[in-house]
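pls ignore typos typing on phone
adenosine-5'-diphosphate + seq
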Amino acid sequence: MASKKPNVIFVLGGPGAGKGTQCARIAETDDYAHLSAGELLRDEAAKPDSTLGKEINEHLKNGSIVPVAITCKLLENAMQNSDKENFLIDGFPRNQDNINGWQKAMDGKVNIRCVLFFDCDEQVCVIRCLERGKASGRTDDNTESLRKRIITYNESTLPVIQMYEKANLVKRIDASNDVDTVFQDVQSVLSSIKSSN
Ligand code: ADP
Ligand code: C5P
Ligand code: MG
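k done
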């Protein structure tokens, strides 16, 4: 992590909304590191010597949220191991526990620049995840896990987005459009943030 206080953009939206796809593109074109909370959890669970694998895998399959102490530590380590000053934190914070844990560990240490909210119809999200599931190897890209992930999203993550909306931090993007159109909208948001520096 650079010596300056890092800039953080939280990236939220339903399962399959396109968060990972867009973050990967941003990381290619702009000076951001892309940290996906879900990806970090999957990587940790896949380590043969991980003591957390069983617990994490249970949550992944059930679409429930892993305790923040685990997720936040993985994010913090990834930030510390990066030489970037700008971070896209994808899929976090997903619930109030995530917010509380982040505040405890990171309060005052980073600048939260905005929350990129990829807004996408539930049906479209399901179709995208099932399509992704044909090749992803993920244990949660199936109808049963998706049903649970959508409940978690509606019950736990939407209130987080609403809370950030009240704080005027949310940049909403219509994520049901094609990848290029969504990316153009993302770039407008990123330019508006840069110009407010
Ligand atoms: P998330 O990280 O939000 O769960 P992903 O970026 O992994 O979503 O995208 C889910 C699936 O949908 C992937 O297979 C991806 O290729 C596809 N996808 C992403 N964005 C779009 C889009 N705008 N239009 C159509 N398909 C998309
Ligand atoms: O964002 P992604 O779809 O990769 O997340 C997959 C799963 O990882 C979630 O359904 C959840 O079980 C877990 N996760 C979590 N806490 C986060 C992000 C993801 O528990 N902040
Ligand atoms: Mg993703």
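The radius of gyration is 16 Å. The chain has one domain: 7-177. more later
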